[in-house]
Amino acid sequence: MSDGQIMEGIRNGDEAAMGEAMEKYSGLLWSVASAVLDGAAPVQEVEECVADVFVYLWQNPEKYDAGRGKLKSWLALMARSRAIDRYRVIAHRNEARMEEDMVAEKWDVLEDICQQDRRKRLWDCLRKLDEADREAMIRRYYYGQKPKEIAAALGIPKKQVENRLYQGKQKLRRMMLETQ
To answer: Would you tell me the crossing angle of helices 71-128 and 15-37 to the nearest 10 degrees?
Structure first.
């Protein structure tokens, strides 16, 4: 079937003519669209570009003017235009995602800095505690020892360890609030 016959059939709603156009030009349109979208989009985007061109041809056959060029060229130009439009949308979407990732990354960095600052302030406050309270706190909250283990290591009653931990936390809380 010639391009003229194909277009005449499509204008008359002949699905066989549309099938002929798809058979004849889908490879070309695929090549054009994938050249634009290569590496930027998944294969489904290329498929959608090609499908969009054929849907457009089916719905708007009057847009093709044989006097201005061959059907092959017109379809290839349509595929290229659709692919460029898709590329722009994908690039914009990726750019927005990248900006979100950058903001999240910056937020993580700020959060890390705040945590480091809090840790430094905590250690500074911990150093201000008397040695017995400081050792009980470090053994409990840094090394994860139970009050019974701390009591055995320090040679003091378990209840005294629990009191030191409670009072130590109270002192640390007050000092941390004062250094804010």
So the answer is: 40
C-alpha span between 45 and 48 (Å, rounded): 5
Of 48, 49, 53, 37, the closest CA to residue 94 belongs to 37
Does the pTM exceed 0.85? no
d(CA 41, CA 140): 54
Set out the domains of the chain in order of their start, with CATH numbers: 3-98 (1.10.1740.10), 129-178 (1.10.10.10)
Cα–Cα distances (Å) from 90 to 46, 76, 134, in that order, read 12, 21, 57
Question: Burial level of 102, CB count in 10 A (0-12/13-18/19+)?
Answer: exposed
**pLDDT grade, residue 105 (50/70/90)?**
low
